[in-house]
Automatic annotation (TrEMBL):
The keyword NADP applies. This is Putative NAD(P)H nitroreductase. The keyword NAD applies. Its EC number is 1.-.-.-.
């Protein structure tokens, strides 16, 4: 087995816990081709959509961006980047979208005025996005959850044809891991976990 095959070997059973315990986002430039096959993508999307969803509203959708459409999207973003006040920074962050073979834009698409508060509907979109990261890791791929100006500048979100009220929850880069990122500082359980004592 080559190192790439080993990296992409799917995991199962107790290995799954190890994958989730050690999952680390991959730097955008270190996500390279090949991306998931059609069969793997189908599994990844199945994992992503298996998400708690109060009221069964499906208040999200996923836009897959790859191949020539991805190249054209980046081209259009680069044109927009030049018109922004922070052009240099915007250009750099846009170029970071180029390496990963697959991008999944997760769109929060809440139903306004529903008895399920919009906050809960948006949380479900966040959970779906996290499922994508964990699903990619379990299938042996790397991923990175970004937003950046592409997610907030209305001229950029227009390129994704967002409907009124929709928001970009994440621009998730997915691909083969060329190089694993070193571990980052993480908070500790004792800082953020407490027990209710009443
Ligand atoms: C909602 C959201 C948006 C993010 N947007 C960006 C971003 O635009 N640029 C960036 O460098 N990191 C962004 N990050 C952080 C990356 O996902 C980062 O690589 C990650 O937090 C690393 O931690 P991990 O290894 O535990 O996944 C974002 C994270 C979240 C949750």
């Amino acid at each position: 087995m080559t190192s790439q095959e080993m990296q992409q070997a799917p995991v199962s059973g107790s290995d799954l816990a190890t994958v989730l315990e050690t999952r680390r986002s991959t730097m955008p430039d270190m996500l390279v081709a090949p991306g998931p096959s059609e069969a793997e993508l189908d599994r990844l999307l199945t994992i992503a959509l298996r998400v708690p969803d109060h009221g069964r509203l499906a208040p999200w959708r996923i836009i897959l961006i790859e191949g020539e459409s991805k190249a054209r999207w980046i081209e259009q973003l680069l044109t927009l980047a030049e018109t922004r006040e922070d052009a240099a920074k915007s250009r750099i962050s846009t170029r970071k979208l180029a390496s990963a073979p697959l991008i999944a834009a997760v769109i929060s698409s809440p139903t306004p005025g529903h008895k399920v508060p919009e906050w809960e509907q948006e949380l479900s979109a966040g959970a779906l996005t996290m499922n994508l990261l964990n699903g990619a890791a379990v299938l042996g791929y790397g991923a990175n959850w970004l937003t950046g100006w592409h997610a907030y500048d209305p001229r950029a979100t227009e390129l994704l044809n967002l409907a009124p009220g929709e928001k970009v929850a994440g621009v998730v880069l997915i691909g083969t891991i060329a190089e694993r990122a070193t571990e980052r500082d993480r908070t500790t359980q004792d800082r953020v976990v407490s027990r209710l004592e009443i």
